[in-house]
Amino acid sequence: MPATHLKIAEQPDPVWQAKIHLAAALRLAVRDELDEGIDNHFTMMVPGYTDRFMILPFGLHWSEARASDIEIFNEQGEILEGSGKIERSALCIHAPVHRITGAKVVLHTHQTWALALNMLKDNRLLPASQTAAFFCGTTAYDDTYTGLADAMNEGERLSHMIGDKQVLFMKNHGVLVVGNTVAQAYKRLYRLERVCRAQVLAMSTGREIATLSDDVVHVVNNPAPGNSHSQEERDDLYFAAMMRVLDREAPGYAD
């Protein structure tokens, strides 16, 4: 009998897939009004490495981000792949946060509603909604703005501030969110902006805000066994859905 030849499906290149996801997140940030044009930074560890990171070269608008634009750099600021430039504060903030916390994805923005809350003396996020409850116990606060990040010790300081948390509120500055995947980190960043917006709007009424009890917060963060989807699945489904939106509204990120 003739030998049977089985066609093995090609596995997607994890580095290329990571670049696609990072470019998609950058474009989504524009759509969701989380960006400042060419400023702020999204970075990701290169799959298979802990000392190489991906970033959009400085000077490109986030709305035009493509996977092929994403460059790879190290903590010394050396470009290992690509030809663009790294903005100094991106290197000084992100490289130490990746190294010290072990975060695979680090997203830093000056998004409007989170920044508005961080401009207040009392900038603490209140457990006043179901979505806000997800951030209870996972948010750290840096109450001392030190100016532009132009030295690695600033990133190291921020790394120790966030510790094992997922979100860092940066007084008078913005926010920093970490995650294991682009999908997880971006959904976290998007939800955070929605929660901050709701809180600032509620505060603007001048009326007393009703907060959730610790018991209810615990229930929200510990769903009963047998839930239809894990949090990881929900993150992946959300991001896949948003990439389909981009495919319709802003194609080209995967080029």
Terminal residue distance: 44 Å
The string of secondary-structure elements, in order, is HEEEEHEHHEHEEHHH
User: What is the radius of gyration computed over CA atoms, rounded to a whole number of angstroms?
Assistant: 19 Å
**Estimated share of beta-strand residues:** 5-15%
Number of DSSP helices?
A: 8
Q: Any idea what the CATH superfamily is called?
A: Class II aldolase/adducin N-terminal domain
CATH class equals Alpha Beta
Strand count, sense and barrel status of the largest sheet are:
8 strands, mixed
From the helix content, strand content and strand pairing, which structural class follows? alpha+beta
Strands in their spatial order, largest beta sheet = 4-3-2-1-5-8-7-6
How many beta strands in the DSSP annotation?
8
Based on the structure given, which CATH architecture is correct?
3-Layer(aba) Sandwich
CATH topology: L-fuculose-1-phosphate Aldolase
Q: Report the principal-axis shape.
A: globular
| Low-pLDDT stretches | none
Average pLDDT level:
94
Share of helix among residues? 40-55%
List the topology elements.
Blueprint: H1 14-31, E1 41-45, E2 53-55, E3 71-73, E4 79-81, H2 88-101, E5 105-109, H3 112-118, H4 130-133, E6 139-142, H5 152-162, E7 167-170, E8 174-179, H6 182-204, H7 214-221, H8 231-249
Parallel strand pairs: 6-7
Antiparallel strand pairs: 1-2, 1-5, 2-3, 3-4, 5-8, 7-8
Helix pairs in contact: 1-6, 2-5, 3-6, 6-8
